[in-house]
TrEMBL record:
Alphabetical UniProt keywords: Antioxidant, Disulfide bond, Oxidoreductase, Peroxidase, Redox-active center
PANTHER family hit by this protein: ALKYL HYDROPEROXIDE REDUCTASE AHPD (PTHR33930:SF7)
EC number: 1.11.1.28
Entry-linked HAMAP family: AhpD
Catalytic residues identified in the record: C132 (proton donor), C135 (cysteine sulfenic acid (-soh) intermediate)
Domain Carboxymuconolactone decarboxylase-like: 96-176
Name used for this protein in its record: Alkyl hydroperoxide reductase AhpD
Database matches in NCBIfam families: ahpD (TIGR00777), ahpD_dom (TIGR00778)
Organism field: Benzoatithermus flavus
Function: Antioxidant protein with alkyl hydroperoxidase activity. Required for the reduction of the AhpC active site cysteine residues and for the regeneration of the AhpC enzyme activity.
Domain of life: Bacteria
């Protein structure tokens, strides 16, 4: 872990001790390749929207990902930021919205710069953070069809959960300062 990420982790308050421990462990999961792990962490930190956390994760991810993978993880976060809102609406509203074309550009989803399964894994992590059931189900199904196992999927969602929780703690601490 880079000094920046380690300092951020060490600076978490006592009431977030479990998150401090989990942040270290989820960033060392053997179920994921280095690209899958750091792409998931970067996409999740982008979705969690906490600047210090994103900066720390990005600093580490830059040293572990190709420029294409670094960009693709951020692209996954950007696309899911749009898609998760739209498809949550479709799911919640019901009716015939699911039968209507979305008319939203999603070219990067069809042709990512990295292995498609990795991009789907990052999209799943962001969709879990953003709470879009329809997108979580869709990405999980595609991942399973591509041969990604439940251990890998669960590992990516663990990263998303911890990154999101750390961002929440950091935001709360900043608000109380």
């Amino acid at each position: 872990m880079t000094t920046m990420l380690e300092e951020l982790r060490a600076g978490l308050p006592d009431h977030a001790r479990d998150l401090k421990l989990n942040l270290s462990s989820v960033l060392q999961q053997p179920e994921l390749s280095e690209q899958q792990l750091w792409g998931t962490a970067l996409a999740s930190a982008s979705a969690a929207r906490n600047a210090p956390l994103l900066q720390a994760v990005a600093a580490e991810a830059r040293s572990r990902l190709s420029p294409e993978a670094f960009r693709a993880a951020r692209t996954a976060a950007a696309l899911m930021g749009m898609n998760n809102v739209y498809y949550r609406f479709v799911h919640m509203a019901g009716g015939d919205y699911a039968d209507r074309p979305a008319r939203l550009r999603m070219n990067a989803l069809a042709r990512p710069e990295v292995d498609h399964a990795d991009f789907e894994l990052w999209s799943l992590a962001v969709s879990a953070i953003n709470g879009c059931e329809m997108c979580v189900r869709s990405h999980e199904k595609v991942l399973r069809e591509k041969g990604v196992g439940p251990d890998q999927i669960q590992a990516a969602v663990r990263i998303a959960a911890v990154i999101h929780a750390v961002a929440g703690v950091l935001d709360a601490e900043a608000a109380l300062a």
